[in-house]
Design goal:
490 residues; alpha/beta; Nucleotidyltransferase, domain 5; 2 domains; 7-stranded mixed beta sheet; 6-stranded mixed beta sheet; globular
């Protein structure tokens, strides 16, 4: 077996990068070859993704593999979920893709609910109700201008759109489609009845392909721009969380994962959807995973609140590092106040520290004032949310987890990982940090026939990357006492 080289394009909500992976048959090694900012653009009151700039940066990453002498055999793209572009009959975008944080879908779940009751929608799609679900975005498109959907020829989610830009071939990949409440979760096909009742045209949607499908080779003009002529583009588990879950280094059937970043995606892996009255009441989602799996999970606001707080302080001329913020948090008194990180007041950009103070004032708690107090409040609130989701996951699935696997960029937050172990009373294994890119690369290796299945992929990860381990400490009893207070906050 030779040394297989691949390129993972991993696009997050604030940045993107190209990662070259080398697999020698036993271990996977990584090298970042390109990194770039991914900044939304607000124009005429609407928030868009700068998709053509993203495409340019992807081509730069491919070109750098040529300059660096990396003989990559394939590439795959993963991105955030739900967002999409509409294409005209000539294959050109009708507009730049709208950002999921745009306000056009405010109130849309209630409007859709008058046509399709929430319980019925969940019973088919199995997806957590969130304003930005693709179904609600398409309904908003139709409400704003009904001709737009009729005039469009295709809808492509972001990774499928970028694959089309590279190859000229249009495909709809399963894991990314599954994020938007467009699919019948049990049948793993389009929920045509729901789409028909909302007046969303069927012609927008193409055949669904699974991770590991060959999209095609680079278009001649892309070959000319990049200098790369023999590159196969494949669908990976193109929703970034689906790729991250591929990279959970577990040998256990019963485990809980947190894909930790701007969002915390927390749940477990199932063989089939879990859709019933209890999962509906708990607002759990059933998203498609790689190789016939289901990601049964909750979307949690995650590190967005920390990131946006830091941006606010920077706007005020106080450019604190994450290390400084964590150090001040450690010096602050523990378990004094909590917020519900999923409260709608924290969902949009703005003055996050002030919103945290307002929440604590409104709920009759201690009001954090210093940077350390605010950061500690955020971390402790996240850990408490994780405990609530762990408990609900175990009740819904009937499984008891022996470990919580934290993967992704949030593994750098050692303070939060220890809090999570203490709050949940379960050991935490943190790593790998580059889980999304690793899952992307290993799906390419599976497509190439170099890795057999998900079990072997996870064995490769365990052999290739070290983990950090955290066990509950004597602080656990304090967390138990404070959890009752947290649960009483409204």
């Amino acid at each position: 077996m030779g040394n297989l080289k691949m390129l993972a394009i991993d696009l997050g909500a604030s940045s993107g990068r190209g990662i070259v992976g080398s697999f020698d048959g036993e271990k996977l090694s990584l090298r970042e070859n390109h990194r770039f900012s991914n900044d939304p653009v607000i124009q005429n009151g609407r928030m868009y993704w700068d998709i053509l700039r993203i495409f340019h940066e992807i081509k730069q990453s491919v070109a750098k593999t040529v300059l660096d002498g990396e003989e990559i055999a394939s590439m795959g793209i993963d991105t955030w979920g739900v967002d999409y572009a509409l294409l005209d009959p000539n294959g050109r975008m009708l507009s730049n893709p709208v950002h999921y944080r745009d306000t056009r879908t405010e109130g849309m779940p209630a409007k859709v609910g008058k046509i399709i009751p929430d319980r019925e929608l969940y019973g088919t799609a199995g997806i957590q109700t969130m304003n930005f679900n693709t179904l609600y975005q398409l309904a908003a498109e139709k409400e704003e201008d009904s001709r737009r959907l009729e005039n469009a020829a295709r809808m492509l989610n972001i990774p499928d759109l970028l694959n089309y830009f590279l190859t000229g071939n249009m495909m709809n990949e399963y894991t990314i489609l599954s994020t938007g409440a467009l699919l019948d979760a049990a049948r793993r096909d389009y929920a045509w009845d729901l789409l028909d009742r909302l007046g969303i045209p069927r012609h927008l949607f193409g055949s669904i392909v699974q991770p590991g499908t060959t999209v095609g080779n680079l278009l001649p003009q892309v070959q000319s721009e990049t200098g790369k002529t023999d590159l196969r583009v494949v669908t990976v588990a193109s929703h970034d969380t689906a790729s991250a879950v591929v990279a959970v280094p577990t040998t256990e059937k019963d485990f809980i994962y947190i894909s930790s970043g701007t969002w915390s995606l927390m749940g477990t892996e199932l063989a089939k959807p879990l859709i019933n009255e209890d999962s509906y009441a708990a607002n759990f989602t059933n998203e498609g995973g790689a190789l016939e799996t289901i990601r049964f999970l909750k979307n949690i606001m995650g590190l967005w609140i920390i990131q946006e707080s830091r941006r606010q302080w920077k706007r005020e001329g106080k450019d604190y590092s994450f290390a400084q913020m964590e150090a001040w948090a450690k010096e602050s008194r523990a378990l004094r106040c909590f917020v519900d990180v999923d409260d709608p007041s924290f969902a949009t950009p703005g003055n996050m520290p002030q919103r945290i103070r307002d929440f604590c004032r409104r709920t009759g708690q201690y009001i954090p004032e210093t940077v350390g107090e605010i950061v500690r409040c955020i971390y402790e609130s996240l850990a408490m949310k994780y405990r609530a989701v762990v408990e609900r996951t175990q009740v819904l699935t009937g499984r008891t987890a022996k470990v919580i696997h934290v993967v992704g960029g949030g593994t750098k937050d050692k303070f939060l990982s220890q809090m999570t172990a203490d709050a949940c009373g379960i050991p935490v294994a943190a790593g790998p940090q580059e889980a999304t890119a690793i899952g992307n690369l290993l799906m390419q290796a599976i497509a190439a026939g170099e890795v057999a299945d998900l079990r072997q992929a996870r064995e490769v990860i365990s052999a290739s990357f070290a983990l950090d381990h955290y066990v509950p400490t004597s602080e656990r009893s304090l967390w138990d006492e404070a959890y009752g207070i947290y649960c009483s906050i409204k």
